[in-house]
Amino acid sequence: MGLQGVLNDIKSNRKSSVYSVTKFNSDKVFVGLDHDDRPCVFISVSSIEQFPSIKTTQIKVEFSKKYSLLLSGSQKKDGIFHGIFCLSKEKIDINTFISVMEYVLLELGDNVSVESMNSIFRSLVNLFSIKPSQDYITERRGLWAELYFMKHYTGFNFWIPSWHSEPTRLFDFSRQRKRIEIKSTIRSERIHEFSHGQLLAPPSEKILIVSFMLQEDDSGLSLKSLVEQARTTLVGTPHILKLQKAIRVANMLETEEEGPKFNESYTIRKIGWFDSKDVPKFPILEPQGVSGTHYKSDLTHATSLSSDEVGTCIHDWNLLE
User: Do 192 and 297 form a contact (C-beta atoms < 8 A)?
Assistant: First the structure.
């Protein structure tokens, strides 16, 4: 059972206590809820290490403190623990805390140290600093296309190592001197907005544009479904942090939020792959003193890659150059 399921069980069966917990993936690790139903993690330690607590408005980490924990039933466990606490009551922060801690606890097992606790703190602080985009509708459509691209072509595990570490990166996928940028539109014309740097490749680089034309459909594949499929694949890996960043930007951390739904059959029929050299663009570098140029390009009459060429690009993606 995943960490969210464990916490749901605790919430359903808890008794009055400051901390209601259960073991998770180790005899030394306990996960649970405080009296305000905020998630917390305790790691049993055998010796006291004198380190100051670290805290923000959303998270707190304490080292070698005495706690009294209530396990299932009425069993109490008193001892010395390192503690990691979510202080925020916002669902977006609680869900992020749970996802990160699930990866960390599955990855580390019993090997939780002061150094790893500090690393966990920094990771959470970084994630909590990411706020939903003001244009989250567009972000959601873009995330749907990126996740569907991975799901449709070979699977999440193949692409996720080269997926952007930050949603603001110039390209969605990067591998050595190869780049892939995913574009999507709900219009009937294959017109996308580009940064000039996404189209004018240096001689040593190859840039591919994958164009998605999407059709909204109430019975179509939802962004929520794609996020859950990706999360299931990535749980217990560091790549879950990439997913968490992307879904925070797209404001998709509310469990009841479905996000956009698109017709999958239409999507598959309308996917187009293009070499950036064949996409209409300004054929020169930005002049000195000019940067951040954006414009729309119509790919309707651009030469697209054949299915064999697409297959070769995918096959060659992870090959060393």
Answer: yes
